[in-house]
Amino acid sequence: MRHDPVPVAAPRTSQRHYGMDWLRIAAFGLLILYHIAMAFSPWDWVIKTGYAFQWLIPPMALLTPWRLPLLFAVSGYASRKLYDRAPGDFARSRALRLLIPLAFGMAVLVPLEMWVRVMENGYPHGYLHFWALDYWRSGIFWGREFPSWEHLWFVAYLAAYTLLLALVLARDGGRTLRAIGTAAEWLTQGRRLLWVPVAALAVARLALLFVAPERQGLLRDWGGHAQYVPIFLFGFALAGSPRLWTAIARNWKPGAAMAALAGAVVVAVELTWPGASVPPHEVMALDRAARTAMAWGMILALFHIAETRWNHDHRLRRPLAEAVFPFYIVHHPAIVLIAWYSLPLHLSAPLDFALLLGGTASVCAATYLIGRRIGWLRPLIGLNRLAKPEHPARETAPASGVV
């Protein structure tokens, strides 16, 4: 394990970065816990337990601003590693690894969640009737909007960003990579990596705040795209620009301080205007700017931790990294179904949480452990097709297809 507070030598771009694997594993594990906690929080979600704990608001408010930007940054990093490994196959491999699980999830997993959603509003039919006759509609049905990505919106966004980038690289890859490298080199100077991205992202977010609705949707979430695309491209640039690691080491402490201050603002706004309460426009603008600053500061701090503390291998690293995508695909419907069927039991909060956590972990583990052994099922849950294992020294591409 490395303990240098500032790297004395930047990692080679051809080397696998184990720290980024561990960061990805931790980020998706935290995402599963976050979604379980949503069922117990006062915030609106797919399904609620019989509990709404106000004390969950501060910790969850501190997670919300950076958990998704972090995933897009890590995904961009992994995308560059995959591109460097096989430039000519980048678009095809990304399409297969992202679009096939997305289609599978939309046809098999999302219907389970949508059935629960309409059942909450009094839908009278069973699941098979719903899937065969009612799921494949468009518009409002029993108070719910169809079709819906549900949690797979992340895969849809990531596929869109990756394939658009692949198109640009296919047209003039050399010029594009040089431009990305030039921008990355410019950011390494002084404190630019700290303040320039925050300023640019905040301006973009505030410019769209009262113009475009803050709603998920590939063709309508302009505020989200304005945040996620640059952060995705930063991850892509980082994997090909080793000097950015030195800049991260120089800026992570003020980045962490910025994240802490911004987090205090986010929590204060959330506690003052809880739930569906709408704060004044100037407060909303301050909140969105604080969320942007917190996200960027946390990315710098967590990337530094991944580089200096976590950049070492372990026998569990590879299977855990491979299991990330299958876990992500199935965890959401697992939480929703377990919560739905446990509602009549009126369990205590600790038992309810234990059931959701244990049940979701069991479903995720079973999906991965069984699915990885079945050749035709592997691509559907986001795993590579079975192939001869490579020598560890030659391992340069991520084990998981989602990032």
UniProtKB/TrEMBL annotation:
Keywords: Membrane, Transmembrane, Transmembrane helix. The keyword Transmembrane applies. It comes from Sphingomonas kyeonggiensis. The chain crosses the membrane at residues 21-40, 52-74, 95-116, 151-170, 193-213, 225-245, 257-276, 288-308, 320-341, 353-371. Residues 18-368 form the Acyltransferase domain. This is Acyltransferase 3 domain-containing protein. One of its GO terms (molecular function) is acyltransferase activity, transferring groups other than amino-acyl groups. The keyword Transmembrane helix applies.
